[in-house]
Fold:
Amino acid sequence: MEDYANQFEETVIEIKRISKKTKGGNTIRFSALVVVGDKRGKVGVGLSKAPDVSSAIRKSINTARRKMISVPMRGTTIPYSIEEKFSAAKVLLKPAPAGSGIIAGGPMRVVLEAAGVRDAVGKIMGTSNKASNVYATLQALKTIAKISRQKKAFKQK
Structure:
Protein backbone atom coordinates (compact mmCIF):
# COMPACT_ATOMS: atom_id res chain seq x y z
CA MET A 1 0.00 0.00 0.00
CA GLU A 2 2.88 2.37 0.80
CA ASP A 3 4.41 1.91 -2.69
CA TYR A 4 1.07 2.76 -4.26
CA ALA A 5 0.82 5.96 -2.21
CA ASN A 6 4.34 7.10 -3.15
CA GLN A 7 3.90 6.81 -6.91
CA PHE A 8 1.74 9.96 -7.06
CA GLU A 9 3.08 13.48 -7.21
CA GLU A 10 1.13 15.91 -5.04
CA THR A 11 1.12 19.63 -5.73
CA VAL A 12 -0.53 22.17 -3.44
CA ILE A 13 -1.94 24.92 -5.64
CA GLU A 14 -3.65 27.15 -3.11
CA ILE A 15 -4.25 27.45 0.62
CA LYS A 16 -6.90 29.90 1.80
CA ARG A 17 -7.75 31.04 5.30
CA ILE A 18 -11.50 30.95 5.91
CA SER A 19 -13.12 32.84 8.76
CA LYS A 20 -16.66 32.28 10.00
CA LYS A 21 -18.44 34.66 12.34
CA THR A 22 -20.04 32.82 15.27
CA LYS A 23 -21.60 33.77 18.59
CA GLY A 24 -18.33 33.02 20.39
CA GLY A 25 -16.16 34.97 17.94
CA ASN A 26 -14.43 34.06 14.71
CA THR A 27 -13.84 30.43 13.74
CA ILE A 28 -10.80 30.06 11.49
CA ARG A 29 -10.36 27.14 9.10
CA PHE A 30 -8.15 26.47 6.09
CA SER A 31 -9.03 25.38 2.57
CA ALA A 32 -6.48 23.49 0.44
CA LEU A 33 -6.56 22.87 -3.32
CA VAL A 34 -4.31 19.97 -4.34
CA VAL A 35 -3.56 18.24 -7.66
CA VAL A 36 -2.39 14.61 -7.58
CA GLY A 37 -1.04 12.74 -10.61
CA ASP A 38 1.18 9.83 -11.56
CA LYS A 39 2.67 11.50 -14.69
CA ARG A 40 1.48 8.49 -16.72
CA GLY A 41 -2.06 9.54 -17.62
CA LYS A 42 -3.88 9.74 -14.28
CA VAL A 43 -4.76 12.97 -12.51
CA GLY A 44 -7.12 14.08 -9.74
CA VAL A 45 -8.06 17.30 -7.94
CA GLY A 46 -9.09 17.73 -4.31
CA LEU A 47 -10.45 20.74 -2.44
CA SER A 48 -10.99 20.30 1.31
CA LYS A 49 -11.33 22.32 4.49
CA ALA A 50 -9.99 21.61 7.98
CA PRO A 51 -9.12 23.48 11.21
CA ASP A 52 -5.37 23.37 10.41
CA VAL A 53 -3.34 23.50 7.19
CA SER A 54 -1.78 20.02 7.35
CA SER A 55 -5.16 18.33 7.89
CA ALA A 56 -6.67 20.30 5.00
CA ILE A 57 -3.83 19.22 2.69
CA ARG A 58 -4.12 15.57 3.80
CA LYS A 59 -7.90 15.59 3.21
CA SER A 60 -7.43 17.21 -0.21
CA ILE A 61 -4.88 14.57 -1.24
CA ASN A 62 -7.25 11.76 -0.23
CA THR A 63 -10.11 13.40 -2.14
CA ALA A 64 -7.92 13.85 -5.22
CA ARG A 65 -6.82 10.20 -5.15
CA ARG A 66 -10.44 9.04 -4.94
CA LYS A 67 -11.52 11.24 -7.87
CA MET A 68 -8.76 10.43 -10.37
CA ILE A 69 -9.42 10.33 -14.10
CA SER A 70 -7.48 8.78 -16.99
CA VAL A 71 -6.17 11.16 -19.62
CA PRO A 72 -5.78 9.81 -23.18
CA MET A 73 -2.55 10.84 -24.88
CA ARG A 74 -1.13 10.71 -28.37
CA GLY A 75 2.60 10.42 -27.79
CA THR A 76 3.49 13.19 -25.36
CA THR A 77 0.54 15.46 -26.09
CA ILE A 78 -3.27 15.44 -25.98
CA PRO A 79 -5.10 14.00 -29.00
CA TYR A 80 -7.56 16.84 -29.70
CA SER A 81 -8.00 20.57 -29.36
CA ILE A 82 -10.78 21.51 -26.96
CA GLU A 83 -12.41 24.57 -25.42
CA GLU A 84 -14.21 23.98 -22.13
CA LYS A 85 -16.21 26.16 -19.74
CA PHE A 86 -16.63 25.50 -16.03
CA SER A 87 -18.44 28.14 -13.98
CA ALA A 88 -16.81 31.48 -14.95
CA ALA A 89 -13.59 29.81 -16.15
CA LYS A 90 -12.94 29.10 -19.82
CA VAL A 91 -9.91 27.12 -20.94
CA LEU A 92 -8.51 26.28 -24.36
CA LEU A 93 -6.26 23.22 -24.76
CA LYS A 94 -4.42 22.34 -27.96
CA PRO A 95 -1.97 19.59 -28.88
CA ALA A 96 1.61 20.71 -29.53
CA PRO A 97 4.52 19.18 -31.46
CA ALA A 98 7.00 17.05 -29.51
CA GLY A 99 9.64 19.07 -27.67
CA SER A 100 7.64 22.27 -27.36
CA GLY A 101 6.78 21.73 -23.68
CA ILE A 102 3.72 22.91 -21.79
CA ILE A 103 2.84 26.43 -22.81
CA ALA A 104 0.15 27.26 -20.26
CA GLY A 105 -0.38 29.39 -17.19
CA GLY A 106 -0.09 28.40 -13.52
CA PRO A 107 -2.99 26.14 -12.47
CA MET A 108 -3.44 24.63 -15.94
CA ARG A 109 0.27 23.82 -16.17
CA VAL A 110 0.20 21.97 -12.82
CA VAL A 111 -2.74 19.78 -13.90
CA LEU A 112 -1.15 18.93 -17.27
CA GLU A 113 2.24 18.13 -15.68
CA ALA A 114 0.62 15.90 -13.06
CA ALA A 115 -1.26 14.05 -15.83
CA GLY A 116 2.00 13.40 -17.69
CA VAL A 117 1.29 15.60 -20.70
CA ARG A 118 4.66 16.94 -21.86
CA ASP A 119 3.64 19.02 -24.88
CA ALA A 120 0.50 21.16 -25.01
CA VAL A 121 -0.66 24.72 -25.52
CA GLY A 122 -3.19 26.12 -23.06
CA LYS A 123 -4.96 29.41 -22.55
CA ILE A 124 -6.98 30.46 -19.51
CA MET A 125 -9.80 32.85 -20.34
CA GLY A 126 -12.45 34.28 -18.06
CA THR A 127 -11.69 34.19 -14.37
CA SER A 128 -8.37 34.21 -12.53
CA ASN A 129 -9.78 31.97 -9.77
CA LYS A 130 -7.31 29.09 -9.39
CA ALA A 131 -9.90 26.52 -8.27
CA SER A 132 -12.23 27.27 -11.19
CA ASN A 133 -9.34 27.12 -13.67
CA VAL A 134 -8.14 23.76 -12.29
CA TYR A 135 -11.65 22.29 -12.47
CA ALA A 136 -12.13 23.67 -16.02
CA THR A 137 -8.85 22.03 -17.11
CA LEU A 138 -9.90 18.74 -15.51
CA GLN A 139 -13.29 19.00 -17.25
CA ALA A 140 -11.52 19.54 -20.59
CA LEU A 141 -9.40 16.42 -20.03
CA LYS A 142 -12.55 14.44 -19.13
CA THR A 143 -14.21 15.59 -22.35
CA ILE A 144 -11.14 14.54 -24.37
CA ALA A 145 -11.32 11.10 -22.72
CA LYS A 146 -15.03 10.84 -23.55
CA ILE A 147 -14.42 11.77 -27.21
CA SER A 148 -11.59 9.21 -27.41
CA ARG A 149 -13.84 6.45 -26.03
CA GLN A 150 -16.59 7.34 -28.52
CA LYS A 151 -14.17 7.27 -31.45
CA LYS A 152 -12.80 3.87 -30.36
CA ALA A 153 -16.34 2.48 -30.04
CA PHE A 154 -17.22 3.86 -33.47
CA LYS A 155 -14.13 2.25 -35.06
CA GLN A 156 -14.98 -1.14 -33.53
CA LYS A 157 -18.48 -1.19 -35.11
The longest helix spans residues 130-156. The two ends are 40 Å apart (CA to CA). Strands lie at 9-22, 25-37, 42-50, 69-70, 82-86, 89-95, 102-103, 120-126. The chain has a mean pLDDT of 91.
